[in-house]
Design goal:
With 553 residues, the chain is mainly beta. Among the domains are: 114 residues, Immunoglobulin-like; 66 residues, no CATH class; 35 residues, no CATH class; 55 residues, no CATH class; 115 residues, no CATH class. 10% of the residues lie in helices and 33% in strands. The protein contains 4 helices and 36 strands. The N and C termini lie far apart (103 Å).
């Protein structure tokens, strides 16, 4: 059976008024029924019984639409004339399908009218010109509540109470005020609902009273994620208290003065009015950074770089020229670090995260990145040094030699290379258009080997060795073996000596075939000669010539 939570009474108090007392008087009565299980208005047919003192009237088969119903009391059983005595306290009991609704409706009589007892019936609901009043018979808004409003959600897993605020027919675009109870949270939050997604929370109040703006779990009374812009005075702490230190209750924080300069006031220990320390960043006076206070007797009002660096910030300095030193008294660059061991550590901020340092050469925020180094993505194990310029190189230089990475997958070393093994890709799956080497022996015989010295004085940046060298001339090799010679952007040529090895192999095989053929011809001639002169010395070696043959396998 359906359980009914309550009947919210609307008593318009308009009667059928007649001049003659014997005319039947009636009450136009409206109410609202809500299902206690679903919390939704009831729609259907119900049987009502109304009781005022000894007067009883039943209304069967009353149509209830969206919880609302309307009956005329006294239309079936006339109301007693005694009910219309001036200022009489009355009580109306309502029974629906055999169940009494609580509490009864209290109202007072007047001459030819009734009025609801609003002071006692704060639970009554009133409809006036499309506005709803709860405990208020004169609603001034769409919903006007007199008393306490509880927004509860007993079935909500994460949300104990929710209020959505948006435009008419805003559909999936509104502000979302919620009492969030998921996990260990017990906070009031404000989200923004856009089509298909919640954004935020933008505002949070946690049980301890901490307020977060853009911060889900505020760690202080006010925890802001992002920038704070103040066009006026921004004060932290109680001015005038004697226990203010540099690390406590900084007051008058960044207050613009008459000259539009940034201003910071740090109260002193005992007499804030006379021993404050004031810091200025002056925009209108050559970018000065000034510290002023009674302890300086006015002499510290304008600090130059030396006074600021050595007198106040021994391990970190800011010059008016813009140099910053950490552990350095005289920084000579935009950032100077001095420290022994572990001087600079960079953390990604999460386990398995990434971190990189970007390098920009155009001088303005938002410009294209020129290069970077670091771990470029979460979970990567690759340390990357990258030049973003399409024609740029990467240099690694020492006093003994330079290593250059070219954008065309080339590695240049100005100096010697020492390694255990050099591997080159040679898998058949990588190769196409295989053709035999033509006339390899002829190509090899045309090469000229040289002993020479490098021009170390003329090309000092190349780090050429000074001792005598063996090698070829690239221009000569290019005539016969063009594919083993490379020309750089400046026109200088290099030889890939390892690519001459396949030519040498094929040349040796060609030479071996010729030697094998000559040996066979020589043996045949020996046999002919020895038939006529078997005692000749060459005839004695015929049986032993097999070891001279270089057989082709």
């Amino acid at each position: 059976m359906q359980k009914i939570l309550a009947t919210t009474i609307i008593l318009f108090a308009l009667l059928n008024i007649a001049i003659a007392n014997e005319t039947n008087k009636t009450i136009s009565f409206q109410g609202r029924l809500i299902d206690t299980k679903t919390q939704r208005p009831i729609t259907g047919t119900k049987n009502f019984k109304f009781v005022i003192g000894d007067w009883i009237e039943e209304h069967p088969n009353v149509q209830v639409n969206q919880g609302l119903y309307s009956v005329i009391l006294g239309s079936i059983n006339p109301l007693p004339i005694q009910l219309f005595i001036e200022n009489q306290a009355l009580s109306l009991k309502v029974n629906v399908d055999g169940k009494a609704l609580e509490p009864p409706v209290s109202f007072h009589s007047s001459i030819d009218t009734f009025r609801a007892d609003y002071a006692d019936q704060v639970g009554n609901m009133f409809f006036v010109d499309g506005k709803v009043g709860i405990g208020n018979n004169d609603p001034r808004a769409t919903l006007d509540i007199f008393g306490t409003l509880n927004v509860l959600n007993k079935r909500g897993k994460y949300n104990a109470g929710v209020i959505n605020l948006g435009r008419e027919k805003a559909d999936d675009n509104y502000w979302h005020l919620v009492h969030r109870t998921e996990s260990s949270l017990d906070s009031l939050m404000i989200y923004k609902r856009d089509p298909g997604v919640f954004k935020g929370p933008y505002f949070v109040i946690d049980p301890s009273g901490n307020v977060g703006i853009g911060k889900r779990n505020p760690l202080a009374k006010l925890h802001v994620k992002g920038n704070i812009l103040s066009s006026g005075r921004f004060q932290i702490g109680d001015y005038g208290l004697p226990d203010h230190f540099l690390n406590h209750n900084i007051e008058d924080f960044i207050e613009p003065n008459q000259k539009s300069d940034a201003f910071l006031l740090i109260p002193g220990y005992t007499e804030p009015e006379t021993s404050d320390l004031r810091l200025y960043i002056l925009d209108n006076y050559n970018d000065r950074f000034s510290i002023w206070g009674d302890s300086c007797s006015g002499s510290c009002r304008d600090l130059n770089s030396a006074k600021l660096a050595h007198q106040f910030l021994a391990n970190g300095t800011v010059y008016h020229k813009g140099n910053l030193g950490l552990g350095a008294l005289n920084p000579n660059a935009k950032l100077t670090l001095v420290g022994n061991g572990g001087g600079l550590r960079l953390y990604s901020g999460k386990k398995g995260g990434h971190f990189w340092i970007g390098l920009y050469t155009d001088g303005e925020p938002g410009s294209s990145r020129a290069g970077w180094l670091g771990y470029g993505s979460d979970g990567t194990r690759d340390f990357v040094i990258r030049n973003e310029k399409p024609d740029g190189n990467i240099y690694m230089a020492t006093n003994g030699g330079d290593v250059i990475l070219h954008p065309k997958n080339q590695l240049t070393v100005y100096g010697n290379i020492k390694c255990n093994t050099v591997l080159e890709s040679s898998d058949a799956r990588y190769k196409d258009n295989l053709t035999p080497i033509e006339s390899p022996l002829q190509k090899l015989t045309q090469l000229i080997g040289w002993i020479f010295n490098w021009k170390t004085d003329e090309f000092p940046d190349k780090n050429f060795p000074k001792n005598r060298q063996y090698g070829f001339i690239a221009q000569q090799v290019e005539t016969f073996l063009p594919h083993v010679v490379y020309t750089d952007n400046d026109g200088f040529k290099s030889v890939d000596y390892t690519k001459i090895i396949p030519v040498m192999v094929e040349g040796i095989k060609e030479l071996n075939n010729k030697v094998d053929m000559l040996i066979k011809e020589n043996n045949a001639l020996k046999e002919i000669a020895c038939e006529s002169n078997p005692s000749h010395t060459i005839c004695q070696q015929i049986g032993n010539n097999s070891n001279l043959l270089i057989s082709k396998q």
